[in-house]
Write a structure and sequence with these properties.
This protein is mainly α. Helices cover 63% and strands 0% of the residues. The protein has one domain (7-250): Farnesyl Diphosphate Synthase, CATH 1.10.600. Helix 1 packs across helix 2 (15-21) and helix 10 packs across helix 12. The N and C termini lie far apart (38 Å).
Length: 275
Amino acid sequence: MDKINNDNSISQHSKTFSFASIFLPNKIKYDVYKVYQFCRLYDDSADKDVSIPDNQYETELNKLGINKKALEQLKIGIDSDRNFNRFIGMDDLIVYSYRVAGCVGIMMCDVLNVENDQDKYYAIDLGIAMQITNICRDVFEDAANKRIYIPKEIMPNDDLNSVDNQEIFKYVCKLHDFAEEYYSSAINGITCIPLKSRFSILLALRLYQAIGRKILSNENLFYKQTINTTLLEKLKIFLKCIFEFFFCFLFRFKKNHNSELHSSLTGLPFIHDKV
């Protein structure tokens, strides 16, 4: 994997991910980078409708002990973008988000040494929440690429140009509510992560959650540009996370996972049998 350990390469694609990963132990950080780089390259290949040689990466991913079922589901999800069809209901979007982001959470669990299968439910939820945040943030950019990820049950229109901006914002706010549900579940799994990597994942969660909340509080800015957190905002969140980490997440606790969040995912790998 060329430049797989290059911090600059990662930061160019995701400043949020790059900032949070600073606090991972070096060995784990570079393994995480390998997973991220593969996901980034495969996603880019779908956007440009080109193929990449799988065997170029499988050796590296196998060395990391990456679950092959997670990798297969990721590919199915990303490949669906090559011949994109609009989602009818939220169930369709949740399945898609599980594949392209929830399964990345499973892969990250392999790297972070999260071994309990039940603990991985929260990683799936974090991936789903982050993906929905991405969709809310990138709605205009995606539409320019002829993809509308907001399900028809929320927004029936197939052409954003025919929808008033204020109506689009209302649809985005409604979709964001689902992201918050999954963030609320994911936070309960933070202490399932080994202590040495726990703060970094907590920070990543809060940074991404902040992007969604910033969208809701900046309607006018939402129409003009892709919303991200500024460096100052990141630093403020970082300081809050230090306090939160030591007072809430230093010691392990575990709440029962809300199986209803996975009701759309019955029969898929890594989903518990109580849904």
